[in-house]
Write a structure and sequence with these properties.
Length: 164
């Protein structure tokens, strides 16, 4: 028995706004400002959702969950991730690894790394040592560095059995 391996890539960006929660990977981070958007604006889950969809060539998050649809207003983005995971699994793929980066000038996120990893691992049915969460600033340069927006990147590895 051998495996077909694939990777999927995802990226997202949202504006920062006061009076909004900062939710990353499903975890609410204490902050004076948060991410603006139609849903809960969880850029980490959106990037991961796109990475999963990309691994199985299933389009992108906006195709499955249009941000013009009132059903997704204020939506918990975990449902987007879980839907993408179930579509990928329906294609015969098994998720084996996820690596992510959040680019945000402040607040510092490193104290939340393991809480986010644990939460993602639980919902993705992965061991925690197969889920990576990294943080970067943009060194005060550009919209992220000036504190106007935040970005997230994700890459996933999936595999499915092929007859050898
Ligand atoms: O962007 P920079 O290389 O200066 O980030 C240094 C470290 O600070 C990162 O490796 C990360 O662990 C941490 N960091 C953080 N929260 C952020 C940005 C960076 O904890 N918002
Ligand atoms: Mg988004």
């Amino acid at each position: 028995m051998s495996y077909e391996y694939r990777t999927g890539l995802g990226w997202d960006s949202h504006r920062l706004a006061s009076g909004r929660p900062l939710i990353l990977g499903g975890i609410t981070i204490p902050s004076e400002f948060g991410l603006d958007g139609h849903s809960d604006a969880d850029i980490l889950l959106h990037a991961l959702t796109d990475a999963l969809l990309g691994s199985a060539c299933l389009g992108d998050i906006g195709m499955h969950f249009p941000d013009t649809d009132p059903r997704w207003k204020g939506a918990n983005s975990l449902q987007f991730l879980l839907h993408a995971l179930s579509l990928v699994q329906s294609g015969g793929f098994e998720l084996t690894h996820a690596d992510t980066t959040v680019i945000l000038e402040r607040p510092k996120l490193k104290d939340y790394r393991d809480t986010i990893r644990q939460h993602l691992a639980q919902h993705l049915a992965l061991p925690i040592d197969s889920v990576s969460v990294k943080f970067k600033t943009a060194e005060k340069v550009g919209p992220v560095g000036e504190g106007r927006s935040a970005e997230a990147q994700a890459i996933v590895t999936v595999r499915r059995r092929v007859a050898s």
